[in-house]
Amino acid sequence: MTPNLLEGRAAIITGSGRGIGLSIASVFAENGASVVISDVNAEAAAESAAGLADKGYRVIAVPCDVTDEAQMDDLVDTCKAEFGSLDVMVNNAGITRDATIHKMSLEDFRLVIDVHMTGCWLGTRAASRVMKEQGKGSIINISSISGKVGNFGQTNYSGAKAGIVGITKAAAREVAKSGVRVNVIQPGLIETAMTAAMPPEVLSKMVAEIPMRRIGQPTDIANTALFLASDLSGFITGTVTEVAGGRHM
Length: 249
Hints:
alpha/beta; Rossmann fold; oxidoreductase; single chain; 7 strands
């Protein structure tokens, strides 16, 4: 891999206290970016930022509730004040509240929609405000393959992840003339704490449905985000990249 693809750039990754978000933050830092690790869990954000800082990377932790307009604006402004710019924004924060449609509460439906879709919209709006002034920037929104095919028991999550695609495509049209790119990544089955908690037989059945016959790794998502953040994808905007090993192609 070409080193330092993000040298001299500053990036925010929401929901990066752990999991896929932390993997993206780590790969960005390894490639020269100054990184803001942001998470609603302030302790997780601080611990993860300290771990990267111990390796010599430029990184700070900024707690943020992505559904809060003022906090999202402050997050973006903090990055610019600390590092001098905001070049990459990854809207990754998300939650699940699974249940079948007749058992799902309206509260859980709205909460998942709010965190994923409102959070993505607020992050895209706040980041593009700064990036338009700079005349450049890359916004990467994390959807899910479930936004394409739908998952049993996830009308809220699948709906929100599909909505992120629509937000991204509309925003990409609006900000392209200012040099700002907006793209979506749709992860498939990725090895995380959530998949680790699945019954082995259920997980094995899902892996068997993947043409590449393996579960994805957080670095598979992080490396795709690196590509979309860098100049290697300089003429790419409004696209959806599936990182799912061919599942649901």
